[in-house]
């Protein structure tokens, strides 16, 4: 007599999102599991770590403000109209882009990582600085940018997100 045994296996979704961490990577539309366009509550749930409102001179009430990723140095999110608009990576942050660019990368490295897709402009405040803007080729990504700010040839901060917010130089302005 042949006996068949049927086993049911529960498998977690293959696309399960990891918690936001220092190993998360920045891309055009977010960082790790946090995406541009998410509501604040969706972003907090996706991050898996506290996202805390930062009260600073760069905020404009509830219309535009920043959330800091607690426990990850230099990582914040701009919120406009209740949704994530961009990701900011500041000084001393270990967070890198999908291609490996990060704080301390040279202008030459940025050009090499994104050949033919970087637009260079003089920096508004650093005499020896530039804005190196990654412009995607894909039509579906035309409303997004990554902007690297450099001083003396090295990246000192960068941001990724949707237009026009990603282009704002002084926080919400």
How would you characterize this protein structure?
By secondary structure, the protein is mainly β. It has one domain (25-167): Sandwich (protein yfey like fold), CATH 2.60.460. It has 2 helices and 12 strands, in the order E-E-E-H-E-E-E-E-E-H-E-E-E-E. The strands form 2 sheets. Strands 4-5-6-7-12-11-10-9 form an 8-stranded antiparallel beta sheet. The radius of gyration is 19 Å and the shape is globular. The protein starts with 24 loop residues before the first strand and ends in an 11-residue tail after the last strand.
- Distance separating the two termini: 77 Å
**What number is the mean pLDDT?**
89
Biggest beta sheet attributes: 8 strands, antiparallel
CATH architecture grouping? Sandwich
Please provide the count of β strands: 12
Q: Biggest sheet, strands in spatial order?
A: 4-5-6-7-12-11-10-9
Radius of gyration: 19 Å
The H/E string reads EEEHEEEEEHEEEE
């Amino acid at each position: 007599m042949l006996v068949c045994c049927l086993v049911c296996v529960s498998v977690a979704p293959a696309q399960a999102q990891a918690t936001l961490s220092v190993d998360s990577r920045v891309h055009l539309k977010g960082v790790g599991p946090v995406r541009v366009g998410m509501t604040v509550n969706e972003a907090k749930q996706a991050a898996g770590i506290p996202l805390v409102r930062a009260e600073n001179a760069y905020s404009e009430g509830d219309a535009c403000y920043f959330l800091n990723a607690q426990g990850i140095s230099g990582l914040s999110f701009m919120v406009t109209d209740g949704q994530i608009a961009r990701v900011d990576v500041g000084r001393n942050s270990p967070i890198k882009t999908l291609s490996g660019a990060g704080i301390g990368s040279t202008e030459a490295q940025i050009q090499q990582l994104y050949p033919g897709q970087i637009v260079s402009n003089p920096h508004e405040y650093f005499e020896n600085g530039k804005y190196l803007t990654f412009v995607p080729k894909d039509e579906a990504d035309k409303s997004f940018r990554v902007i690297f700010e450099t001083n003396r040839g090295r990246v000192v901060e960068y941001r990724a997100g949707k237009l026009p917010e990603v282009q704002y130089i002084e926080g919400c302005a």
